[in-house]
Amino acid sequence: MSIAVGDPIPAVPERPMRVRAHVPRSQRVLLTVARHAVLLALAAMFALPLLFMLLQSVMPIEQAKTTALWPDRFAWGNYGEVFDRVPLARYFVNTLLVCVLSTIGTVISCVPVAYAFSHLRWRGRTTVFVLVLSTMMLPYQVLFVSQYEIFTSLGWINSILPLTVPAFFANAFSIFLLRQFFLTLAPDVLDAVRVDGASEFGVLTRVVIPMAKPGIMAVAIFQFLFSWSDFFGPNIYLSDDDSLTLAVGLVRLNTALVKTGESNLTMAASVVFVLPILVLFFFAQKVFIEGVTLTGTKG
Amino acid sequence: MATDALVLQRRHSARSRAAWRRRGIVLAFLSPWLIGFAVFIAYPVVNSLYWSFTIKHYGQPARWVGLSNYGLLLDNPGLMLALRNTAYLAIVGLPIRLFIAVLCASLLARPRRGNGSYRLLFYVPSVVPAVASGALFFFLLQQGGPIASLLEVFGIEAPLWFRDPAWAKPALIMVGTWALGDVMLIFLAGIVDIPRSLYEAIELDGAGRWARFRHVTLPMVSPVIFFTLLTGMIGVLQAFDQAYVFSQGARAGRLTGEPDGALLTYAMLQLRYFQDGRIGFAAAMAWVMFLLTLVITGLMLASRRRWVHTAVGEK
Asked: Do B58 and A281 touch (CB under 8 A)?
């Protein structure tokens, strides 16, 4: 696992020994110790919150209201209880539905658009691409005020439609990311296929998509993660208790349980919300990391 | 001769037909974005701009009032509070986040045993959904919560994060800093890209650790610092999720009570007006946010030449 994370970042050769030799041995040992001390402190800072979340989620209620950090016994029943109290299973299904549909929508709509911006030649391509990128500057606030009226007039409030249908009409970030991946494919290869009589659609489906699979995976995973985590949109469009996603359900639960002090139940719901994402991350970490790095370095 | 002209004409029309076909293909490939842009971006942008000059409630026609929404905005005490909170998050929060991200990245840039695991561990919090980390830190920081217990071990009395206005925003900054993994990764990629020859050259001049960092690492990653600062600023302007979770929880708790709007962000204020049905006002707020984004981006781009290093051959 540790090697996999290191993979996408190319190895840096060690400094040559002659330079190293200037540093006295005792000082080097000291530096190594200091480095590990800092790293361990940082590791604790990053890991402890998640550990506390897990521990609190199995804390018996009488202990949850005290300052206890470690549960006397593991109250796994907390999970059953939180599923009983709120329709968490329903939220889970709603969230999954939103994520799967918007991921499919994003991929099938953005792939052809990104292809047009990378391997089709046409006048005004750069100008239109700049327009695409500039839409990323628009705060969602400017859009939702008016989108809300559209969705209301269509009768889409309290359904997953406002959260999934727009995904089928491409978004700037995914277009940008896919284009970056597509540009790494040599145009000569595509030309060779065209000479053989393939249509542009054929080139896209038979050459570009198979070759750019990692890029498409990255875009799919980012969209899935975004939809899973999104709170602002679902919070506006969903209010019926049965229509909520996990993000909205969790915030409501958190607010409702502040008074009773049942933070163990809030944390159990948080684990249900976070665990699928962590599992996804562990299976697809390479894709994640390549994607993040690409948005940063080529931005 | 006549046949020549005919052949030419036919060839010409064939060429123009092919050109139209190509245009059709391009349009077909672009169509998802074109439709989406028209319906979900262009129309809402124009519409909300229009509404920002009107009094508007859903289901009723908008009534033109000129600039009065913008005038009211200037007089709104909530706005100044929200902008002050935003400035605090930008001026205090962003540098802390970037500094720790650079620290993590430079500690982990070289391939050493264990570094892969550290990278993985440091990155994980940034995939945790924002509202989940909000709920998590709301629990961690509560009175008698784990952080208070840990501080007690060191004999420090924990502040009342959600009761004391002075501590509410630091709590917000803590959650943001916890999730710095993506920034760290971007820095890592930037540091790894620095050519070894630069370090070797400066080492021949007898430079120490600090000089290496100051004169090689820092200038070489300055484009990355610029990028993360820019996206960070835009993110701070739109800050919502965790501030919302904190303030909802704090208000529900009563025993804590939202401390003097210390958690009020601009996006929260805008949502409040939207939910009160004052759509024209909410639209004006959204447009001010957009203009602020443009101004900040413009200022940062203008300042770029002064401090961002560009290598020879780059634009």
From this structure: no
In a domain, B313, yes or no: no
pLDDT tens, residue by residue, A111-143: 999 999 999 999 999 999 999 999 999 999 999
Classify B137 as helix, strand or coil. Answer: helix
Q: Do B36 and A228 touch (CB under 8 A)?
A: no
What residue segments make up the domains of chain A, in order of their start? 12-80, 87-297
Please tell me whether residues B160 and B104 are part of one structural domain: yes
Asked if B17 and B87 sit in the same domain, the reply is: no
Beta carbons of B107 and A135 less than 8 Å apart = no
In a domain, B266, yes or no: yes
Q: Report pTM.
A: 0.90
Same domain, residue pair B26 and B159: no
Which neighbouring-strand residues pair with B63?
A: B55
State the best of A36, A230, A254 to mutate against chain B, taking most chain B CBs within 10 Å: A254
Q: Output the domain CATH number for residue B124.
A: 1.10.3720.10
Pair B281, B211 in one domain: yes
Contact A175, A109 (CB under 8 A): no
Q: Among residues of chain A, what percentage have pLDDT more than 70?
A: 91
Record: contact B128-A50, CB cut-off 8 A:
yes
Structural tokens at position B12 = 């010409």
Torsion of CA B49, B55, B57, B60, to 10 degrees: -100
Residue A2 pLDDT > 50: no
| A residues 26..65 contacting B (CB < 8 A) | 35, 38-39, 42-43, 45-50, 52-53, 56
Burial class (CB in 10 A: 0-12, 13-18, 19+), B266: buried
Q: Are residues B191 and B142 part of one domain?
A: yes
Q: Would residue B59 count as lying in a domain?
A: no
Last residue of a domain, one of B51, B76, B92: B51
The model's confidence at residue A220, banded by pLDDT at 50, 70 and 90, is very high
Pick the residue from chain B with its C-alpha nearest to A290.
B185
| Residues B57, B278: Cα–Cα separation, whole Å | 6
Q: Is A137 on the interface with B (CB under 8 A)?
A: yes
B124 within some domain? yes
Residue B284 lies in domain = 68-307
Per-residue pLDDT, B214: 85
The share of chain B scoring above pLDDT 90, in percent, equals 55
Q: How many domains does chain B have?
A: 2
Closest CA of chain A from B36, distance in Å = 5
pLDDT tens profile A61-96 = 988 888 888 999 999 999 999 999 999 999 999 999
Contact residues, chain A, for B185 at CB < 8 Å: 289, 292-293, 296
Q: What is the distance in angstroms between the Cα of A58 and the nearest Cα belonging to chain B?
A: 14
Average pLDDT over residues B254-266: 72
- B44/A3 touch (CB, cutoff 8 Å), yes or no: no
Domain check: are B22 and B171 in the same one?
no
| Fold (topology level) of A87-297 | MetI-like fold (1.10.3720)
**Residues contacting B73, CB < 8 A, separation 6+:** B79, B281, B284, B285, B288
Q: Give the pLDDT confidence score for residue B202 in this predicted structure.
A: 87
The answer to whether residues A174 and A110 touch, using CB atoms and an 8 Å cutoff, is yes
